[in-house]
Amino acid sequence: MCCGSRSNSLGLICGAALAFLGFSIGSVLGQTSPSVESVESVGTAGEEWARSNPTSSATAQTQPVVKDNAHPRVSADEREAIGLPVPTWASSARVQPAVNESLEAQKQIIRERPSLAWVQPDRPAGFEGTVYVNVYLHHELQGAFDSPENRAAIKQVQQRVLSHLTAAEFSLIFAFKNTAGLVGYVNEAGLGKLANHPDVVAIGLDDQPRPEDISRARRDPGPKPTPGEPITPKHVERTGRVETAIFDALNDSADGYVFVIVSINPDVPSDASYEQKTAAARQVQDRILSVLTAEEFRLRSRGPTGGVHGLADRAGIEKLNSHADVLAVDLSQRGSIQGSLKPRNR
């Protein structure tokens, strides 16, 4: 991702982040964000949601709080079993007050400690300015909670909400099968959209372990080179900007998603400073993510001066293939974005 002095700078940033562990986001006294209003709900919205989602509530409220959501701790099945707690605040406000407080805390971190914001220990790289939330959705129980009819109805409302958000605004981490809800990272713009979406009952902080992503096709790195022999770059067959193997992986994917690395093409001179490259990269990343819906691309990390890494479906791959800011789309080999920066020299 970086080399030379940039590598040293990144090392300093990461080292500083460890010291930053003593700074608790929860200790920041934030005020409710002026651009995201608490939307009044009618009646006992939380209780109505619980009646339509009988598998949640009881188990979800007894789980231990896990503060580090940046690393996988449970399987998808375990997260499904944990469920969601009843949104008791939904009778008076659609957005839990703690969500707005956490957003204000993020703003303070970005404002006062900008060099530490990208590598916060409680979230994936490049997720500054976001909050890890549960999104509760309107849903009428269709037969048994785990019946095909009920699951289809839940998926339909999930898709409606995700199609209303961009990949820059909401990063989906988990979509429940038997519960009308979503879990993911949302920024301020995304929170505003969710708070005013007719299918959304409530938004609250999620304090549960982050579920693992399903194991997916990754590029075969091939045999290790013999010590002393030069490393020959492996030829990658492409269809446009996209590694051709991605289309085969999509055909074999159980849920229609594959892990990809999106290499970007920031228009910066080769002698630009690290700060200039990070700013340029973020602008390009945001342009790309803003044309993808939260359903088409599920962001997993951002490079400080490079591309993005995440899960893409076929529609997302097609959009990436035609985007002028995208240099290449490759199957993820190790779940990292090392080497995804390929700046254009002037």
Task: Jot down its keywords.
single chain; about 350 residues; alpha+beta; Alpha-Beta Plaits; 2 domains; 4-stranded antiparallel sheet; 12 strands; disordered N terminus
Molecular structure report:
By secondary structure, this protein is α+β, with helices and mostly antiparallel strands. It has two domains: 5-211, no CATH class; 238-331, Alpha-Beta Plaits (2-Layer Sandwich), CATH 3.30.70. The protein has helices at residues 5-19, 45-52, 76-82, 97-112, 114-117, 148-162, 188-195, 245-252, 274-290, 314-321, and strands spanning 72-74, 131-137, 170-175, 181-186, 200-205, 210-211, 238-239, 242-243, 258-264, 297-302, 308-312, 326-331. It is globular.
Q: How would you summarize the topology of this molecule?
A:
Layout: H1 5-19, H2 45-52, E1 72-74, H3 76-82, H4 97-112, H5 114-117, E2 131-137, H6 148-162, E3 170-175, E4 181-186, H7 188-195, E5 200-205, E6 210-211, E7 238-239, E8 242-243, H8 245-252, E9 258-264, H9 274-290, E10 297-302, E11 308-312, H10 314-321, E12 326-331
Parallel strand pairs: 1-6
Antiparallel strand pairs: 2-4, 2-5, 3-4, 7-8, 9-11, 9-12, 10-11
Q: Got a strand count?
A: 12
- How large is the count of helical segments? 10
What's the story with the biggest beta sheet? Answer: 4 strands, antiparallel
What count of domains describes the coordinates? 2
Q: Concise description?
A:
This protein has 10 helices and 12 strands. The protein is an alpha+beta fold and 346 residues long.
